[in-house]
Amino acid sequence: MELDTLKKLYIDELKDLYSAEKQLIKALPKMAKAATDPELKQAFQTHLEQTRGQVDRLERVFEILEASPRGKKCVGMEGLIEEANELIGEEPEPEVLDAGLISKAQHVEHYEMAGYGTVRAYAELLGEEEQAALLQETLDEEGEADKLLTGLAEGAINLRAAMAGEESEAEEEQQSRTGGAKRASGKSSEREVTRGRTSEVSAGGRQGGKPGKSSGSGAKRSENQARR
Fold first, then answer.
1. Helix 38-65 to helix 129-152 angle, to the nearest 10 degrees?
2. Which residue from 7, 83, 119, 155 puts its CA 20 to 30 A from 163's CA?
3. Are 26 and 82 within 8 A, CB to CB?
4. pLDDT tens for each residue of 91-103
5. Cα 217 from chain centroid?
6. 37-63 pLDDT tens trace
């Protein structure tokens, strides 16, 4: 479709949002499953239901426009979801994972808020008041979801992630110290073994030297007796 009018651009942006929402419906259950904080898990599940309602609103807008919502893939949302999947795949500490999931989810919310704010403005300019009202309703939901995520992050989740990081660093430092002590103990044992072997060699040398001298003295006495 040639984008030579604002209405065509408006429809193109709506298709992009429709694709984004359909992708998010598939992604949110995985994010909810990965979350360990109960409130965060519930927030994802709640937003999943909201997203389904947002898809319904978009379909209503397309009905009014007598246009199809299909035919375009939102590569922006695809990238944001891929980042979330990469985070989950890295298997970070649970507290850190929750903080990271909020970050990824807020990237999504801000992306959608920008998109819905734009199409709502286009609808108003085009005199499509009913469509503008439907889009504003979704924009309000996205804003509330973003505020909820901020509250969860600032309330406890980010703090727990920070504490988990400190505990991890402390454990690594303790392991490093323990490893150093073991290495030092090993070296000490090696020195003790070396000293023991050195002492044995020295003792053997002294014991071997004395019989040699006695044998020599005995040989000299036997020689003197033979001369007599």
1. 170
2. 83
3. no
4. 999 999 999 999 9
5. 85
6. 999 999 999 999 999 999 999 999 999
CA–CA gap between residue 149 and residue 145 (Å, rounded): 6
Which residue is associated with the tokens 């065509």?
Answer: 8
Q: In three state form, how does the secondary structure of the chain look? A: CCCCCHHHHHHHHHHHHHHHHHHHHHHHHHHHHHCCCHHHHHHHHHHHHHHHHHHHHHHHHHHHHCCCCCCCCCHHHHHHHHHHHHHHHCCCCHHHHHHHHHHHHHHHHHHHHHHHHHHHHHHHHCCCHHHHHHHHHHHHHHHHHHHHHHHHHHHHHHHHHHHHHHHHHHHHHHHHHHHHHHHHHHHHHHHHHHHHHHHHHHHHHHHHHHHHHHHHHHHHHHHHHHHC
pTM, rounded to two decimals? 0.73
